[in-house]
Amino acid sequence: MKITKRQLKRIIREEYSRIISENHIAPYQQILDLSERPGGVDLDEINHLFGKTGFDIIDEMIDENLVWLDDQEGIVYAKESPGINSAIEKYLK
Fold it and tell me: What average pLDDT does the chain have?
């Protein structure tokens, strides 16, 4: 089955709109931005803002070594967060 250039453009436009409307990209970046704060981001805040999806994203980010989870305090820190060193020191005591 052949499709025209016009049909292909329409299909691409529809798929792009679907991806944007389902908001697949934004939560990942938002969680990373929140976790870069000096105090990190609390898991309750993640749950409030993103629900279960937020926890799935955090799991992916941990696997990719982008964030560190302080499971004693329930706070997620980005590897670039200014507060991560003090959190790790507190965790090791």
Answer: 87
